[in-house]
From TrEMBL:
Predominant subcellular localization, coarse grouping: other
Protein name, entry field: Redoxin
Signal peptide range: none
Coiled-coil ranges from the UniProt annotation: none
Domain annotation Thioredoxin: ranges: 129-267
InterPro entries in UniProt: AhpC/TSA (IPR000866), Thioredoxin-like_sf (IPR036249), Thioredoxin_CS (IPR017937), Thioredoxin_domain (IPR013766), Thioredoxin_ResA/DsbE_sf (IPR050553)
Gene Ontology MF, one: antioxidant activity
Xref: Pfam families: AhpC-TSA
Gene3D superfamilies referenced in this protein's UniProt entry, alphabetically: Glutaredoxin
Organism the protein comes from: Arsukibacterium ikkense
Amino acid sequence: MTAVTVGPLALPITPLLLLISVLMGLLVAALVGRKYKVSVTDPLLSILLGSLLFGRLVFVARFAGSYDSLWQMLDIRDRGFDLSASLLAAVCILCWLLWRRRQQRQALLAGVLTVTMLFGAFSSVIYVGRQQAMLPELTLQQLNGDSVNLAELGRGQLTVVNLWATWCPPCRREMPVLQQAEQQYPAVRFVLLNQREHPELVQQYLQQAGLAFQHVLLDRQGQLATQLGAHGLPVTLYFGADGQLLQSHMGELSAASLAQSLQQLGAGAE
């Protein structure tokens, strides 16, 4: 599952679970703080915001060549963060606060431990579920009408499957990023899987946008999204050479966030 559907909205699962963990941590910290007559809401938020800011800065520095403007660097919708840097910053800020605010130590530790343990448990559940998700045996159409087995297409090679539609603005914005990545990473197979649209409409859009991909498939019934719980668009799924789902990303990709995922999965650019 990549998202939780709330009415007409599809919310990315990982940020949502992080938000729930933080809220629970604030609640526990408030309860413990009441016992000691202290408040730690501001320090806990400082840890969260400081670690995210540092993680973003390190991420931008690592992938500075992937950005064309300062606005792209500031745009965090791609959720590009350096996890190691964020964790390091969180530990440093926590240690400083524990040293400076001795009366708040118990409440601070209670809040931080709650967030860490709860988000860790959520992440473990997601990881276990991902271990069981495989690239399914689906027969899908190409734009020329030929049929292709999706599992066979992805077998033996790291495969990136992008779920998109012509009516989806974030999908359209990230298409040039995917096209460039297909050229930069020849060892990776990119599959653009259109959702529930007529082939003539898809072909017309690609021609007008000047886009060309090796593998554009049509999922007229949304079968892959249904089987893997990939709600909302765009969604990008990363499958290993054995067909196992390794990573997923709901929402718009940037060149930097795509490069980070491919590097984590061992893909090298030419």
